[in-house]
Amino acid sequence: MLLGFTALLSSCGNQGDSKSSSNGALSSNAAEKVYVAPGEHDEFYAFMSGGYSGNITVYGLPSGRMFKEIPVFSQFPTSGYGYSEETKPMLNTSFGFVPWDDSHHPDISQTNGELDGRWIFINGNNTPRIARVSLSTFETEEIIEIPNSAGNHSSSFITENTEYVVAGTRFSVPVPQRDMPINEYKGNFKGSLSFISVAPDNGRLNLEFQLTMPGFNYDLSHPGRGKSHGWFFFTTYNTEEANSLMEVNSSQNDKDFIAAINWKKVEAYVKNGGGTMMPAEYAHNVYDEHTHTATSTMKKEVLTVNPLDVPGAVFFLPTPKSPHGCDVDPSGQYIIGNGKLSADLTVHSFDKMIAAIEGKKFDGEAYGIPILKFEDVLAGVVKSGGLGPLHTEFDGKGNAYTTFFISSEVVKWKLGTWEVLDRQPTFYSVGHLMIPGGNSAKPFGKYVVAMNKITKDRYLPTGPEMEHSAQIYDISGDKMELIYDFPTHGEPHYAAGIPAELLAPKSKKIYRLDENKHPYAVLTPADARVERDGNEVHVYMSTIRSHFTPDNIEGVKVGDKVYFHITNHEQDFDVPHGFAMIGQNTSELLVMPGQTKTSLWEPKKPGVWPFYCTDFCSALHQEMQGYVRVSPAGSNVPLTYSLGE
Ligand code: K7E
Ligand code: CUA
């Protein structure tokens, strides 16, 4: 398949020549470049954040075909995630059940700075959370809430061996939270930067420590890599610490900062007993693949670190002007601040930063944290002529690509010489962009995907709101070439891409029935049964093409809580069964082969009520159905069920 694809590409010849695609006319070469023939597979997976959908959507590149939506922070009736008894605990927080979030930045796990395809992490921005999703099952396996945080935006970025997933707060808040006047923000609110360790064997998350920083807004972040491994960089804005009329008051300073954090130093300090344990309340939710069930634990304390207690660990790099994106090149040498109110890009040098720190050349301090001199750390300025730079990615060939929201374009420039090599319009108002592996030491610089905020006339109108558009540019030549345009779902702020060959071979096909440790599983249809426990009725139900066992149940009464525990006995790839009950106040369930899932039904009315399989599983799928007889409360109809005799 790959060979055929390469042949297709090399037959295209003269990419990037005079034919501009800005007039919307795609050359036949462009069509060939994105064409993935029926039955053929894409070259890359692209995981797009869902923004206000709270989830992740999975696409193929270059075809732009959508493969799946992975529910993460939002209830998802398509699969029953967040509705089934097993998955409800995933959405538990210290605020109770929160069935939605705003997810922005997916990041794939790395080993030695390269994508390893084990997990993908994503942040919940609104009710601060970090999720870990398995890239073999494509299921959300873990969600940890972040205390002392609000607007969990400079998240979720991982260090080069997945030692930590890092989560910074956008909004500074009182730490600990308390009732106080808002206009006493300045000097009193704090910004916490959280370091969550990832267990190398099973990925389990643990909030190791939080740095309690001055009360700025921490917008975005990226890890150091290579020579700068051990450091983490965060853009800040609102160093004015304004609390109202922000669009004016937080843009007064000519320069804000990039905060450079030597996390290895902080880690060593903590390992030697440093830091202050403080009370906190945050949920830690873990999904077990063998019981097919999530548990939620409420944590009670968190280790906080005052940056002033770890000398030499935290510095500020002046950066114009309310920077948004904070990106680090594949070598780890260059740290790029995208000043969203500036026309130029500021590139800092890691080597110069270290030299300035060693020479103790400071330009004052902010709340005791040394500020380095702008000129001492500056590597160069990209004078692009664009407006509103937001985010930068890298192709691994010495080039960087920056999005400009206001001038609506992607600009390609050269690391080291800072010269602009190319620019292409986006349609319209681009936010992030993504090159597979573009946030690692080893990018796969063949395509860049621009994620646009405004769609307007790109597709047939669908009422007042249009889905956001993404655009694929071929970047294998000297000039970028727009080759495709496709709609996305929710608001993909950022995305993470990975070569298909790193994921597809280990994608899970089934769950093994003989490894099913769900307490309500029925491992053979002969064990199917119905049991009453007070007003709770537990239905131990099996499904196999094309039958529910049991399929008729009598003796259920109004006021009962009926739990349908459904085990899918299939052991074939891609044969889920569904379950839906008339009048249930949750969604249907989709149960994967070998899995057990539970749906709660509280019957309201006497009668004979049907249930059925929602997934067209065989020629006799329409026969996959059954009835529950519901009698009035207090009736003495005995509990009986049919096993298909
Ligand atoms: Cu939309 Cu990364 Cu949340 Cu910029 S962020 S666009
Ligand atoms: Cu099972 Cu349709």
Count of beta strands = 45
SS-based class: mainly beta
Instruction: Please tally the helical runs, counting DSSP H or I stretches of 4 or more residues.
Output: 7
Morphology call: globular
What small molecules does this complex bind? sulfanyl-(tricuprio-$l^{4}-sulfanyl)copper, dinuclear copper ion
Described by strand count, sense and barrel closure, the largest sheet is: 10 strands, mixed
| Spatial order of the strands forming the largest sheet | 6-7-8-9-17-18-13-12-11-10
How much of the polypeptide forms β-strand, as a percent range?
35-45%
The percentage helix is under 10%
What is the residue-averaged pLDDT? 94
The Rg value, from CA coordinates, equals 27 Å
Structural account:
About 5% of the residues lie in helices and about 45% in strands. It has about 650 residues and is mainly β. The protein is globular, with a radius of gyration of 27 Å. The protein starts with a helix and ends with a strand. The structure holds sulfanyl-(tricuprio-$l^{4}-sulfanyl)copper and dinuclear copper ion. Sulfanyl-(tricuprio-$l^{4}-sulfanyl)copper binds near residues 104, 324 and 494.
